[in-house]
Amino acid sequence: MQTHVAKFDSQRFQSLGPGYVALNIAGEAGELANVIKKLWRADTRIAQPDGYAAIAGDELKKVADEIADVVMLTLVLANHLGIDVEAEVERKLGVIDARLQDGYYGHEAKTADT
């Protein structure tokens, strides 16, 4: 996916710099949050672990569209900075797993193997 976005970006857009791209990511994340906020007003389950089931149909399409914007722009930024997103996600998952094992996240700690 990162390679595909890099090709698309190089053929169609001129990078406006990392500051602009980062702010654009923040703006798209805000749009995603706004969609979720509106869904939350209609169904308070959104705040609970079973709230994913409350997002369907046209609302799911809106969420998907905003997630696509966030991911695409994040990949554009990573590509321009020479960051291998897959490697960084794997590294970060290891960090999070170590924190879980150490009890860093409180009530969620050590639930995977206990």
Which helices and strands occur, and which strands form pairs?
Layout lengths: L1 H11 L5 H25 L14 H25 L3 H17 L13
Helix pairs in contact: 1-3, 2-3
Task: Give the tags.
114 residues; mainly alpha; Helix Hairpins
User: What value does the average pLDDT take?
Assistant: 91
Number of domains: 2
Helix segment count?
4
C-alpha-based Rg, rounded:
17 Å
Structural class: mainly alpha
> Would you report the number of β strands?
0
Query: What oligomeric state best describes the polypeptide chains here?
Result: single chain
In the CATH hierarchy, what is the architecture of the largest domain at level 2? Orthogonal Bundle
The level of helicity is: 55-70%
Global outline: flat
Low-confidence stretches: none
Account of the 3D structure:
It is a single chain. With 114 residues, this protein is an all-alpha fold. The chain has four helices and no strands. It has two domains: 2-83, Helix Hairpins (Orthogonal Bundle); 84-114, no CATH class. Helix 1 packs across helix 3 and helix 2 packs antiparallel against helix 3 (57-81).
Task: Describe the structure in brief.
With 114 residues, the protein is an all-alpha fold.
